[in-house]
Recover the amino acids of this structure.
């Protein structure tokens, strides 16, 4: 495929330099549409607490529950409102190369600084198919490759990453396989962001990762900034671990959605198939906020335990 003109002026080196990238949550109104007022408020909290980039419409942002029109609109909105203050990385990946091409064209057209691309999932493909898929989408602009076998059902093997790592638009890899894989890449000069909040401290300071693409930074961006910027801090890392474990006890973003609702940052609205954590877990969260300190969490309202009746589940949106 011929190289496409890239109207985006962000350099790959600008993306490689990022250390704290938040996989931003998408809030909803009671009818299931985007709550852009709550989204903008959460974005301001990320910027004010030191996040350098955001993933828009990723797993945490529920891009898989969006139409492509919604998806590109949210990327464009984020660029328009915050693009001079933070790097906007649009999740334009797909298990269909055709869709990934089209979404990336649109994402770069509305000004995103980089794309996030996952390997084709469910149907899977061969190693050569992975290389061809990534080389095709890499032609469009700065790109982070995302490897999360627990969701895609297929690991991106190091042989594939090595083959595409010389592409000038390859910014690096969001890697979820673990420390040994992180070290293998960083030893060879490939930029890596930890995709696991529970591993990111050690990945950053022991195994050479550049930083983290984080879920928990939606909640405690200032503490995650400290964890990524201020050197080894096993005490802070240990302090955050119960919260991280709580967040991922059920598949992400169920815990995050529940937590942000109880903090009063987003409305308690879930797009199905996601549903809130049960009451017992909601009570646990309040205790964690008190233990870590309410001042370290986003929002200004008192944390509360929401009742089952407070939550809205939306099936048509």
């Amino acid at each position: 495929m011929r190289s496409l003109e890239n109207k985006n002026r962000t350099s790959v080196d600008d993306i490689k330099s990022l250390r704290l990238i938040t996989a931003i949550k998408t809030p909803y109104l009671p009818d299931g549409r985007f709550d852009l007022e709550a989204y903008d408020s959460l974005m301001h909290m990320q910027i004010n607490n030191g996040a350098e980039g955001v993933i828009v419409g990723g797993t945490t942002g529920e891009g898989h529950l969006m139409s492509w029109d919604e998806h590109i609109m949210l990327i464009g909105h984020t660029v328009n409102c915050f693009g001079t203050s933070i790097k906007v990385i649009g999740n334009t990946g797909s298990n269909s190369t055709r869709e990934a091409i089209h979404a990336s064209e649109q994402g770069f057209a509305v000004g995103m600084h980089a794309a996030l691309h996952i390997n084709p999932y469910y149907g899977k493909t061969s190693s050569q198919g992975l290389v061809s898929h990534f080389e095709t989408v890499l032609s469009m602009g700065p790109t982070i490759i995302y490897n999360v076998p627990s969701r895609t059902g297929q690991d991106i093997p190091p042989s594939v990453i090595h083959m595409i790592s010389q592409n000038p638009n390859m910014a690096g890899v969001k890697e979820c396989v673990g420390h040994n894989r992180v070290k293998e890449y960083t030893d060879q000069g490939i930029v890596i962001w930890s995709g696991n909040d529970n591993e990111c401290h050690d990945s950053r300071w022991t195994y050479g990762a550049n930083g983290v693409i984080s879920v928990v930074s939606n909640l405690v961006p200032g503490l995650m900034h400290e964890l990524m910027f201020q050197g080894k801090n096993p005490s802070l890392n240990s302090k955050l671990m119960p919260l991280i474990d709580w967040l991922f006890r059920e598949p992400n973003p169920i815990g995050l959605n529940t937590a942000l609702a109880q903090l009063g940052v987003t409305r308690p609205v879930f797009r199905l198939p996601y549903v809130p954590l049960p009451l017992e877990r909601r009570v646990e969260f309040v205790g964690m906020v008190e233990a870590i300190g309410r001042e370290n969490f986003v929002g200004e309202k008192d944390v509360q335990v929401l009742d089952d009746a407070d939550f809205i589940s939306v099936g048509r949106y």
The mean pLDDT is 96. Residues 93 and 117 are 4 Å apart (CA to CA). The chain is about 40% helix and 15% strand.
